[in-house]
Design a protein that fits this description.
This protein is an all-alpha fold. The protein contains six helices and no strands. The chain starts with 27 loop residues before the first helix and ends with a helix.
Length: 197
């Protein structure tokens, strides 16, 4: 949900990034090492993020009533389609499309391996690679501590929490019972049931 106007994220999803040209004179050797370091840091963060979302997906699959919902795959397919539309408009984004397809392929492979491993295992407590509920918050905390993308991830999570709070307050209905409702036959029976337990 958009934090500015409150509409669905699909209405604003077409703008995923903007290019701004900025010319700067750099020392070639130091700038190359800075670029290589930045790429290395980004690759590390990408691996950390992938590790966390795969563990969380496995946890949800192992502990859900319904089978695994592959929203991540749908989300990646959507971004691939967006990038393909941009490419058709003249953008040079083949690397982005290739990387998104690679992420989707790796995720599908990991989840399919996990599904095969748990197909015959009906007791989730026996699974060694599935998170325990008390490990979730520390795992998400590792994302918040990422130096490059951590603050953005925290901001997005806080936005989701705010949206959920807003939705729950809109659904919540407070009913004020009249004073004589406490002495009604149904309430007296209810109190009796509660006190006997």
């Amino acid at each position: 949900m958009c934090q500015k106007c409150g509409c669905s994220w699909k209405k604003h999803q077409h703008i995923t990034y903007e290019y701004v040209t900025k010319l700067t004179r750099l020392n070639e050797s130091s700038s190359l090492s800075d670029i290589n370091q930045r790429l290395s840091d980004l690759r590390f963060e990408k691996a950390e993020i992938e590790n966390v979302y795969k563990k969380l997906a496995k946890f949800l699959h192992a502990n859900s009533i319904l089978p695994l919902n592959d929203d991540i795959l749908e989300y990646l397919k959507h971004f691939i389609q967006e990038e393909q539309m941009k490419r058709n408009s003249g953008d040079q984004n083949n690397d982005i499309i290739h990387n998104l397809e690679q992420i989707m392929k790796n995720y599908e492979e990991d989840i399919n391996l996990f599904k095969e491993a748990i197909k015959n295992d009906k007791d989730p407590s026996n699974r060694k690679d599935v998170l325990k509920p008390n490990e979730i918050f520390s795992l998400v905390g590792t994302l918040y501590r990422l130096p490059i993308n951590g603050s953005q991830i925290r901001e997005q999570v806080n936005g989701l929490k705010l949206t959920q709070e807003n939705l729950s307050t809109k659904r919540e209905i407070i009913v004020r019972l009249p004073a004589k409702a406490n002495s009604s036959k149904v309430m007296l029976q209810f109190q009796q049931i509660i006190s006997s337990n």
